[in-house]
Structures are given as C-alpha cells and as structure tokens.
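Example 3.2
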Amino acid sequence: MKKIWIAIVLVLCLLGTGCGKRSGAEKSSQQCTILVECANAVKSNQLSGELRDFLPENGMILKKRTVSLQKGDSVYDVLERTMKEEGILMEASFTGNLAYIEGIDNLYEFECGDLSGWMYCVNGKYPNEGCSGYRVKAGDQIEWHYTCDLGKDLGQEYKGK
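Structure, written as tokens:
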C-alpha cells in the first residue's frame, strides 16, 4: 500500500502539480525599459585613449530595451539582471543594503575626473535615492548615464541627501 502512494505522488510530481522544483523563474507580465549610455565620457577629453577605443563610438552601451520585472525589483536589480543577460560587465559596491555602481562595461567612476561616475533616472527624473532603494513599477523607463561633471552635463545637478 505504501508503494502505491509513493508511486501516485511521483506521478503527480511528474505531471507538474507543484511538487518539486520549477525550471527557471516565472516570467512576469509587468515590464519596464532600461538604457545604458556614456556619450559624455566618449566626448570627454579626460578619458584615456585606450578606454575611448573600447567604448562604443556613439556612447550607447545598451540600447533601450523592454525587460520583465520581478516582484519588488529595485533599479539595481533590473540593471544587474540585464547586464548579466547581455554579458556586460558591471561592478558595484555595497554599504549595508545600499548599492553603488562603480563601473559598467569597463567604464568606472573617476575615469573622466573627480566628478565623474554613473547616475540613473526613472521616467526622466533623477531620484535622490540609491538605486537599490528605488522600487521599479510597471512601465517605468530606467536610464543609466555616465556623468563627467556630477550631473551638470546631464542637465541635473547632484544635491545629495
């Protein structure tokens, strides 16, 4: 009798009734867009020639694309997942749960001077919040831009918290 129950459970698991591990993450119907660009770095006279040769001529590291959201995603989560999927190098450091993007596609902070680095905006606005704390909503448009002048060259001056 015990063997029959084990066989029934195994058959149910094989039929996909919820027993066992799912193969891969379930796709979400919620989506956002993401773009990564470094045009200001490419135009900068402070960027080393070797690095300039490596970066895309037009500064577009990742053209705007639609990506799926997972429940509770932050801007950091979307960037990290997308960069992994695209095989683009990304490096971040953390203070507690707060992520700071040090580099994307071999372009790091301070490559174009003391005020250079990565900034993000959502729906055209630069939040005064770290990328790991900003929760993404369906339809949000995330953009990562490399600034050479603490945001002034992006039309946004960093004000700090």
